[in-house]
Design brief:
The protein is α/β, with parallel strands linked by helices. The chain contains 7 helices and 5 strands. Helices cover 44% and strands 9% of the residues.
């Protein structure tokens, strides 16, 4: 019974994306205690296990849904299978979304392509106050490190950034 329940939930990510996109209450990105007020989206516990079963198109749909969401201010997708493709999707989202103030993408696999897209978004985003990108499982280029540093020069809203930089120049 529980196994079919998990399988059933695993295929509902497109519906979750539609709810997120239209700023309706979501089902799977809430806190462990279920006490989310709808402003925080976090993949933990059972929700993280369900997310692990999601397909790449489902994950992309959920990430892209935040572009039009006007309620969620904090997103935590830590160790959530965010790769370059999804990092690029987050870059596109951050160019459009004006509600998310905190984004935690720590402990994922974002490399140069995703970091460059996020850097480009930081040039125009005026709502993000906190961005956590540390502990990526894969390395990203010095070019993407420089792009992030250059984007920060013109960004007046980002107050907290966690990221590991190898090149001393952008530090």
């Amino acid at each position: 019974m529980k196994r079919s329940f998990m399988r059933q939930k695993a295929v509902e990510w497109q519906e979750e994306a539609a709810r997120i996109a239209s700023s309706q209450p979501f089902h799977y990105g809430s806190s462990e205690d279920g006490m989310s007020d709808g402003t925080k989206f976090s993949l933990t516990g059972q929700n993280a296990a369900l997310w692990a079963r999601a397909t790449i198109p489902d994950r992309r749909a959920v990430v892209e849904a935040f572009a039009t969401n006007s309620v969620v201010s904090s997103v935590a997708m830590v160790n959530a299978y965010i790769n370059d493709e999804l990092g690029q999707a987050w870059g596109a989202v951050l160019q459009r979304n004006r509600t998310v103030t905190s984004l935690n993408l720590e402990s994922n696999s974002i490399t140069s392509g995703g970091m460059l897209a996020i850097a480009e978004a930081l040039r125009v985003n005026s709502s993000l106050v906190e961005l956590k990108l540390s502990n990526q499982h894969l390395a990203f280029s010095q070019q993407s490190e420089m792009a992030i540093a250059e984007a920060l020069e013109g960004n007046g809203t980002l107050m907290k950034l966690t990221i590991e930089l190898r090149n001393p120049r952008p530090r």
